[in-house]
Design a protein that fits this description.
The chain is of the alpha+beta class. 45% of the residues lie in helices and 12% in strands. It has a 7-stranded mixed sheet with strand order 1-3-2-4-5-6-7, sandwiched between helices. A hairpin with a 6-residue loop joins strand 6 and strand 7. The longest helix has 17 residues. It is elongated. The chain starts with a strand and ends in a 21-residue tail after the last helix. The relative contact order is 0.12.
Length: 351
């Protein structure tokens, strides 16, 4: 299983191996275990993080194949070199770090694309005080700092980014809240009429109002009407453009609603909010969660065009800012034309 994260905005120091290893949970979205993480150094200067690829450490028989599969994905971006970080395994006294053979396969595969390995390092796990070592120098190593006490952690917290303890914990965010409710709604959605544009917009305004009041999950009728609203291209485009400005309060509010609908709608209807969720998460730099949401969309509807496009773009490491145009042009009239999110009420002023 592979996770791709586009070039982000976190202040990662590529020159300090210990700090870089400690930053991995924030770069991939969760604490990696039994993983290889490839970090591209972004051109032209190579001092910024580009594409970040995380994959499971393969068995011995699959190491060369895994290396050959990962290297082209780094080559597709604009990188000056790659740092390899391998997490997992136990080091025997007097022996090189575990998975040294796999690190060499990776270096050879990357070299075929003109990408030098600028650093290759290992640690058993990402925890405070864990030992780390280098594959290329015996005197290179030390102990990891507390990942939560780094500059990267502070920047991630300020931007609202969460590092989960595992990939499974992050994936659980997308699980259905109530499988029985999905079964009921699947039957009810079969004869769903197409709403008008004004009715669809009103449904979303009501949904945002309920969300602000913290009214809990939608009823069957509310969920069905929202699924119907997303069948209208003009309303779906207006929802698409809510992802900008990335990370803004309105974009976060929209992302919360898309996540709710992913958990509350059956297949294939959940594909539309899952794709919107993936795009919104991608723009704010959370590639791991974006990828999970897009995979969820394709599981619900294997032919979903937007999810397929975005997952391909994500796997190639396109920086999020290069996808802003999709949101800006998705709704030429602007989301205010539908006014899907009602503004917060003005605070009362003393007379």
């Amino acid at each position: 299983m592979t996770t791709a994260t586009p070039a982000g905005r976190l202040p990662v120091d590529l020159r300090d191996p210990a700090l870089l290893l400690a930053a991995l949970p924030y770069l991939v979205g969760f604490r990696p275990e039994k993983s290889v993480v490839l970090l591209g150094h972004r051109a032209p200067d190579g001092n910024r993080v580009g594409l970040v690829l995380r994959a499971d450490v393969p068995g011995r028989q699959d190491r060369a194949r895994q290396a050959q599969a990962l290297a082209p994905r780094l080559a597709a971006g604009h990188h000056t070199g790659v740092t390899i970080a391998i997490v997992g395994g136990r080091r025997r006294p007097g022996s090189p770090p575990p998975h040294a053979g796999f690190a060499k396969h990776l270096a050879d595969a990357l070299g075929q694309y003109g990408l030098p390995v600028l650093h290759a390092m290992w640690t058993p796990h990402i925890t405070p005080g864990a030992r780390w070592a280098c594959y290329q120098a015996d005197d290179c190593g030390g102990e990891l700092p507390d990942p939560r006490a780094t500059v990267v952690a502070a920047a991630a917290t300020e931007s609202g980014q969460v590092a989960f303890d595992s990939r499974a914990e992050m994936e659980a965010l997308l699980d259905p809240r109530c499988p029985e409710a999905l079964e009921r709604r699947a039957d009810l959605l079969a004869g769903l009429p197409t709403p008008s544009g004004s009715d669809a917009a009103a449904e979303f305004r009501a949904a945002f109002d309920r969300q602000r009041r913290d009214d809990g999950p939608p009823s069957d009728e509310q969920a069905i009407r929202l699924a119907g609203a997303l069948t209208l291209p003009q309303v779906r485009d207006a929802c698409f453009s809510m992802a900008v400005p990335p990370g803004s309060p309105s974009a976060r509010e929209a992302e919360r609603l898309w996540l709710t609908l992913v958990r509350e709608l059956p297949a294939p209807q959940r594909a539309a909010p899952a794709a919107l969720l993936g795009y919104t998460a991608y723009l704010r730099g959370d590639g791991a969660f974006a990828g999970m949401a897009l995979e969820n969309a394709l599981a619900a509807d294997p032919g979903h065009g937007l999810a397929t496009l975005l997952l391909n773009v994500l796997s190639r490491g396109m920086p999020p800012e290069e996808l802003l145009a999709l949101a800006m042009h998705a709704d030429p009239a602007g989301t205010r034309g539908y006014n899907l999110i009602t503004p917060d009420p003005e605070p009362s002023r003393p007379g």
